[in-house]
Amino acid sequence: MLFLKKRYFLFLASLILIYSLKNSPNIVEEYYSLFFYKHFSQLIFFIFNRINFSIGDLFYLSLPLIFYLYFKNTPTRREKTSKVLTFLFSLYIIFNVNWGLNYYRIGFSENSLLKTKNIDQLLSTTNLFIKNINNLHNKITLNDSVPVDFKNYNFNLYEESVKSIVNSEFYNLNHVPRVKNSLFSTPLSYMGFGGYINPFTLEAQININTPKLNQPTTICHEIAHQFGYSSEYEANFIGIVSTINSKNKIIQYSGLSSGLRYLMNDVFIHDKKIHSDLVKKINKGVIINFNKANEQLRKYNNPFEIYFKKSYDSFLKINNQTEGIKSYSLVVSLLIEKYSSQLYMENPMTPNEP
Q1: 147 with 83, same domain?
Q2: Residue finishing a domain among 47, 74, 104
Q3: In 133-282, at which residue ranges do the beta strands (DSSP E only) sit?
Q4: Is 235 found in the same domain as 148?
Q5: What is the separation of C-alpha 28 from the centre of its chain, rounded to a whole number of angstroms?
Q6: CB atoms within 10 A of CB 30
Q7: Nearest Cα to 106, choosing from 39, 21, 190, 1?
Q8: Residue 354, domain member (yes or no)
Q9: Domain that holds residue 177
Q10: Does residue 152 share a domain with residue 85?
Q11: Is residue 316 one of the residues assigned to a domain?
Q12: Are residues 63 and 150 located together in one domain of the fold?
């Protein structure tokens, strides 16, 4: 009984501490994200990144067996309730200590100079992206009507994508990150997710069914989560910028494609006629790449996807991400802020030659 009281006291004290930290973003940023997590994560990466397959996925698969063994010799309802609470509290505390408190750090938007955007800024940045993706597409295919064929290039897409974020301004750790194929790729496809980070093992997972066009930015997105950038809009922005700055033209193309689609979606919301006019400016080969990627994703459309997305949206909002899963406008604002200074340069966003 004394042991149980001590255990519940520790749980209660831990929960109070976590709750207090969640209301102190400056403390979380300075002492958790930039200090504790930065060093603690090195140990986790050292253990799990050396293994080629996903330990985190195996943990999830083994949960039914763990539950069975955990409750096997629990005769009374009171003991079962106690064990359930202990298990859930333990997972919650481990989740927050391992990674979850990053949800409460100071976000990009709070440090951003661009609090609002107007239609002129949006259109200027969108035209900049169209100009650059058309130029890059012409360099790759030598024909504006031919799509980029990712099968024609004999480099490791994963390694080149990882290299792009390691060489970026966002790289803040002392290890070389890696991404692993998820054992749940097919379920993730039907749920509408391109990947995820396991908050217990800090493994970055990629859905292998993700279209090749989207894979580089998705890989960098999940690795950004590994770095401690928890919000979806931050990870999306980092994925786009890192790949645009890659020395590999195909990785650059993926980044420009992703950024352009965010911008075009925002234009569509503001003015469908202008959106239609802008589509006509984009190389036919680029449009074909977009359509092929969308067609591949549509194969997994199902009536339950919306419920999976709503569940994840609720999870994000509970964890201080007020925009939830629909944080497109924040990504667009950051892209405008990042690239607006290049609007009047002679060769804006000129990709590095490999």
Answers
A1: no
A2: 104
A3: 179-181, 195-197, 204-206
A4: yes
A5: 20
A6: 14
A7: 21
A8: no
A9: 119-345
A10: no
A11: yes
A12: no
CB-CB neighbours of 326 under 10 Å: 12
Give the span between the Cα atoms of 339 and 346, in whole angstroms. Answer: 14
Q: Does a structural domain hold residue 160?
A: yes
- Tokens at 175, concatenated: 């290890």
Q: Kindly state whether residues 293 and 227 are assigned to the same domain.
A: yes
> In the listed set 46, 72, 104, which residue is the last one of a domain according to the structure?
104
Digits of tens for pLDDT over the chain (354 positions)? 555 566 667 778 888 888 888 889 999 999 999 999 999 999 999 999 889 999 999 999 999 998 888 877 777 777 878 888 888 888 899 999 999 999 999 987 666 655 567 899 999 999 999 999 999 999 999 999 999 999 888 789 999 999 999 999 999 877 889 999 999 999 999 999 999 999 999 999 999 999 999 999 999 999 999 999 999 999 999 999 999 999 999 999 999 999 999 999 999 999 999 999 999 999 999 999 999 999 999 999 988 778 777 787 777 777 766 666 666 678 999 999 999 877 655 455 655 544
Total tally of structural domains belonging to the chain: 2
pLDDT tens for 280-289 read: 999 999 999 9
Residue 113 lies in a domain: no
Residues 162 and 255 placed together within one structural domain of the fold: yes
In sequence order, what are the beta bridge partners of 206? 181, 195
- The conformation of residue 340, written as its DSSP 8-state character, comes to G
Q: How far apart are CA 285 and CA 268, in angstroms?
A: 21
Q: Which two tokens stand for residue 115?
A: 């609090």
Residue tagged 């070389």 (tokens): 176
Q: Tokens 């079962």 correspond to what residue?
A: 80
Partners of 196 in the beta sheet? Answer: 205
Q: Are residues 128 and 163 in the same domain?
A: yes
Backbone Cα Rg of the chain: 22
Angle, helix 119-141 to helix 284-298, in steps of 10 degrees: 100
Residue type, 302: N
The C-alpha atoms of residue 142 and residue 139 are separated, in whole angstroms, by 6
With a CB cutoff of 8 Å and minimum separation 6, the contacts of 117 are: 332, 333, 336
What pairs with residue 205 in β-bridges?
180, 196
Q: 292 Cβ partners below 8 Å, 6+ apart?
A: 147, 211, 213
Domain identity same for 164 and 201 = yes
Go through the chain and tell me how many residues it has. Answer: 354
Considering the entire predicted model, what is its pTM? 0.90
